[in-house]
Amino acid sequence: MKIRRSSQIQFFVYFCIATWLSSSVCYSQMVEVGSNLNMKTLSDSKYITGRELCFNRSSVLKKEFAYWIRVPKSYKEPKLGTTEVYAYTFKPIVKTNPTVLFFTGGPGMSGRSIPMHLKNTNVIYFDPRGVACSRPELETDFLDPNFYSSTTTAFDAFEILKHLKLNAVSIYGHSYGTVAATIFASYFPSKTKNLILEGVVYSADSSLVQSELKKTILQKFFDSLDYRIQDKIISLGNSLLAKTWFANVGSMMLYLNEGVVSYAKFLDIVLSLSDEQIFQAIGNFDLKDTDEDLLYSSRTGFAMISCQETTASNFDQSSSLAFNLNRKLEYIKENYFFDFYCFPLGFNQKQIKAIYHANNYPVKVPVYYLLGQNDGATDLNQGLKHYKNVAKGIKKLLIMLDGGHMPNLGFIKDNWGCDSDKK
What we know:
Blueprint: E1 2-4, H1 12-22, H2 25-32, H3 50-56, H4 58-61, E2 65-72, E3 82-89, E4 99-103, E5 122-127, H5 139-142, H6 150-163, E6 169-174, H7 177-187, E7 192-198, H8 206-209, H9 212-224, H10 227-238, H11 245-253, H12 259-270, H13 275-282, H14 299-309, E8 321-323, E9 329-331, H15 336-342, E10 367-372, H16 380-389, E11 395-401, H17 409-414
Parallel strand pairs: 1-11, 4-5, 4-6, 6-7, 7-10, 10-11
Antiparallel strand pairs: 2-3, 3-5, 8-9
Helix pairs in contact: 1-2, 6-7, 11-12
């Protein structure tokens, strides 16, 4: 079944430019929560535990109902001791209301950037181990690859439900969160009322890292542009900006519903600016130099999963697209991901444990799929294969035409408006 959303979507990155030009209120509210943190990378700062981080950021977390839950460091070797996982809600749990347990994307992300305010429903979030308030007491655990896995995340979630004395709940996974959510539903069907998957990962192999669908969408959009605009895009990539800039920005735009429309509006603004302004604007998309707000993300947590369970770290396999001499996008060969994320943590190419594949985790409970036709992160084919091969019982599929990586969550978030008290 396919549904179309006709209302206009604004992308947070588009707001970045809109704010710059017209002082947009929405964007300033969006970034305010992290503005008081001295953001340093883990390699040049003193290690901070999850409790220390949370207590230091109590002004941000004061609206959260917190649950600190001790779980085994290793479910295979319980004698290794325990660590804390932080779960939270934005309102008290009412046992008579339906409950949703949310697995956020990433990996290495907290759910604070995509809160769901659902009326008469308990929504439980948790920081995966190594992330935000679930950073362990010991830095040696934080830097131990064996401390992390998607299966461990699923088992931690089970411990959360057990601690809260909750029976079967709805399991909601978004993006990378669909990995741990699928594993949870497969291992713990008695705790899973149903499984809701949005922006689905089916296999963490080259088909995920180098999406042919994303390449096709961006190429089609480029080909639709006036030839003078095409010349400008190519020229910027050969001089002022990285040669991958067009596809890098486009990939982020395709996170949004109606992302191609948003990208066209973005280019209308950006390409009319001076070279200095263009450089400042596109610099916002240089993820290689992005600082991290430890309350919202963990570069180490991201790397520990990505370097062990995906092919993203493979030599010469890049998710970056650039134009060839015929103005056709093609994936370039580079070792950036491995050099930036994996090598600093001591990984080598032989340390990939097992590439995640959803076929290893069949699900018998009802599964509901929310997919975007133009998803730029986990393309539509990933979700369709999951639907066909993994769900063994009742299953429903919704595809939003022109939808992006957050067809449902983006719709909910867009309709909150700028009023932070509007739920």
